[in-house]
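Hey L., structure's done. Input below.
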Amino acid sequence: MDADDVSLRDRIEVLVNYLLLHPEIDVVSSGFYFIKQAGGKSATVIPKAKLPKALKFIALFSTPVAHAAMLGKAEWLRQFPYDRQYIHSEDYDLFSRMAFSGLRLSNVPYCLYKIRINPQGVSYTYESQQVESHTKISLRNVRLYFGENPDPKVHQVAINRFSGRVDISKIREAMEFLVACEQEYLKRESCNDEEKKEITQYLDEQRLDILIQVIKNWHPFKPFSFIPLVGDNMRAFAGKKMWKYFIQKIRIKGV
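Output:
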C-alpha cells in the first residue's frame, strides 16, 4: 500500500477469514474509498464483480481486483512475480496472468481500504505510460484467450483507454466487440447465473464509461451527433443502479 493510504483496522482479519472460509479462492480483495488530501471521503468504489469467472472475464479488459487491498496465498504470490516490462500496470498483468492460469480470484462486496488522491502520485504523473502498459496487457489477454487480433483502435475504445475524438464507426465496432467477447466467453466457460449477471453488469458499466469519454471529447460544432450512440446503448443508462454508477463516476472525476 502507498504510504499515505489507509487500511481499515479489520481489513486483514476480514480477508484472512474469507480465505479460510473459502479454501477454493486464491486471491481476495475489496472495494475502497477515494479520500482527499486532508482525509475526507470523496467517492466509494464497490468491486465490479465478486465471483471468479466474472473476474476472469473482466481481466480481459481491466484489473479484476484492487491491488493495494489484495490478500492472497503466499505460494501463488511466489509463483507469480511482477513483470517489470509492464511499468505502472504490473498489478493488472499479475492478476490477469493469475486468472488465466486457473487461479480463482474474488472480491468482498464492501470497502476495506482508503486511497488518497495525490496529484503527484503514479496514476497522475505516469498516466501515459500506465495507459500504454494497460493497453498492451489487455491486447495480449484478448489475443491469447480468443486467438484473434482485434483492430487496435477498436480495442483501445473497448477498454476505454482513448482520448480525443474517435470516429463513430469505431465506437460502434467497440461496443459490438464487447458483446462478441461476452458471447464467446460464455460459450467457453460454465458460468452460473450469478456470474453471468456480474459479467452483464460489468459490460453495462463499461459501455457507460465509454459513452462518458465520447461525450467529453465530442466535436464542439456537432454537440448532439452522439445521440444515436446513446440510443444504441440505452441499456447502459437503464435503471437506478446505472444512474448511481454514473453519478459515482462523475464524483471520481471531480476528486
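Residues 6-253 form one domain. The longest helix spans residues 193-216.

-- N.
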